[in-house]
Amino acid sequence: MTVRRTIEESTSDREKGRGLDRKRVYTSEFNSWALADTMPRSVEIFDTTLRDGEQTPGVALSVDEKIRIAEALNDLGVDVIEAGFPMISVGENESVKKIAALGLQSRVCALSRSSRKDVDVVLDCGVDYVHTFIATSDAHLKYKLKMTRDEVKAKAVDAIEYAKSHGLTVEFSCEDATRTGLDFLKEMHIAVQQAGVDKINLPDTVGVTSTPAMERLVDEIMSVTKVPLSVHCHDDFGLAVANSLAAVRRGARQVHVCVNGLGERAGNAALEEVVLGMMAFYNIQTNVDIRKIGYVSKTVSNLTGMPVPGNKAIVGSNAFAHESGIHVHGVLEDPSTYEAFGPELVGMRREIVVGKHTGAHSVKEKLGEYGVTLSEEQIGRVVQEVKRLAESGKRVDDAELVALAYHAAGQRAGEARKVRLKEFAVFTGLNITPTAVVALDIDGQYKRGSEIGIGPVDAAINAIRSVVSHKITLVEYRLSAITGGSDALCEVSVKLQHNGEKKAVSVGKSVGSDIVQTSVDAAVEAIDRLYSRITKDE
Ligand code: KIV
Ligand code: ZN
Question: Which one has a higher pLDDT value, 8 or 497?
């Protein structure tokens, strides 16, 4: 049974993106069974993308990239940004210093082992919030630290007292808490509170706790923890988000997260999933502006070089994509049929994808987006052709669908072209601003223009826009290599939008061996398809 939730929120929260527009959230009413008195009304988001997230194998961010991510997180509204572990390297130290100096609204925190030397380095970075940790499980004591429980406790307490005496806000973690004996874990929590700690974090360092066990552990630990409790869950069994939500349900008031679920090994709890889960299931508030989630996810993916899997919840390219005819039909009638919530709530877009399971509704809707109208019989033929191509393993993208539609309408490729490329040149090199010159034949008129860009493709597309209309923007550019080697064939598809009164989109695609020339061909094809629509609009 799916129903629209009726919990009300203030309009101002919604306007700030901090509340959910419940009319567009279609969760199950059974979730009310899980509401508990122990749940806080609001939870703080401690983002560790720049620290644990950077520990993702293969990720190494430059100082500038870290600053850009910190600014994006600040804009998103996270409460705390763990900017790094300044003790580990010169670059890490520099980036923590620079992020601390940005004057962000989010609090900037740095990680530190439980040692005065590490705390001094943190102080030198100019941050006022330190996250100290020391391992407490028997395995870590025996094999890694080679210390007794009493020694570990004394070190944790000393570092906290030292940091507090220097005016820092201190959060403390028992590393590997979930494999630490319960009595010793409680003893540690009591000792660090006596030392003046401000917050205690409970890490499931190796992601080894089941969700009901996490609930019970939080209950146990809350009985001795008077300062706010935080959780830090790893995803080794795929339970990081579930365990974070479970901890919050039992009273945790802060969650450690990483954008896109980055982090050591299988990663940490994904920011986007924890925030949406808390809001949708428990009606818990955070300071995160959820409308910016899609953008922040893309920024982090681009800067870390870690692609977001298509099927990743909330931010994956398939998260709001529908292919099957039955689903598309349902979603077009009412999105609640096959969506958990509206993509616009989190800055994402719904996408209708054509493929083997496609029906006439999808094709009609998709072609409508590009201003192509066909008869029912022609649509039927396009559907059959899409299925045939998809079954032979070919992905049918928008440009191919539009080409199939023109074919079904009896128009041969290029036959009725109004826009043709006549001349094209691009100049680029070291210390030269890439500059392109193009000449087009537009409906029998010869027009020429030139423009600069950040690269030769950008310059070429800007030059085409300068000839046709500055109201045209590039909304998508896809480049893929068809064959290998430096003389590889490439395939470019370009999606353009005309931002006139009537917004119109168009796609073009081309294959060739020269990336710039192929991009220009694809752009001219897209412009040609847009031309008859925008001339009516100008
Ligand atoms: O996973 C972990 O235990 C950590 C600590 C430093 C909190 O990342
Ligand atoms: Zn961790």
Answer: 497
In short, whether 495's Cβ falls inside 6 Å of ligand 1 is no
Domains and CATH numbers, the chain: 11-304 (3.20.20.70), 321-408 (no CATH), 419-537 (3.30.160.270)
Q: What is the pTM of this model?
A: 0.86
Among 49, 52, 262, the mutation site with the greatest number of ligand 1 atoms within 8 A of its Cβ is 52
Which residue of 80, 113, 133, 262 sits with most ligand 1 atoms within 8 Å of its CB, as the best mutation to test the pocket? 133
Ligand 1 site-directed mutation target among 232, 235, 236, 244, most atoms within 8 Å of CB: 232
CB 299 near ligand 1, within 6 Å: no
Q: Which residue has the tokens 């996270």?
A: 78
Among 447, 522, 513, 458, which residue's Cα sits nearest to residue 485? Answer: 513
CA of 39 to the centre of ligand 1 (A): 24
Nearest CA to ligand 1 atom 5: 175
- To the nearest whole number, what is the mean pLDDT of the chain? 92
Instruction: Find the angle CA(367)-CA(375)-CA(332) to the nearest 5 degrees.
Output: 45
CA 353, CA 165: separation in Å to the nearest integer?
A: 59
At 244 the pLDDT is: 99
**Within 10 A of 281 (CB to CB), how many other CB atoms are there?**
19
Phi, psi angle pair for 364, to nearest 5°: -65, -45
φ, ψ of residue 487 in degrees (nearest 5) = -100, 25
Q: Are 250 and 222 in contact (CB under 8 A)?
A: yes
Ligand 1 atom closest to residue 175's alpha carbon, by position in its atom list: 3
Q: Which residues pair with 232 in a beta bridge?
A: 203, 256
3-class SS of residue 325 = helix
Tens digit of each residue's pLDDT (9 = 90 or more) over 49-89: 999 999 999 999 999 999 999 999 999 999 999 999 999 99
Q: What is the pLDDT of residues 139-150, one digit of tens each?
A: 999 999 999 999
255: DSSP letter: E
Q: Above 70 in pLDDT, residue 99?
A: yes
Average pLDDT over residues 349-358: 92
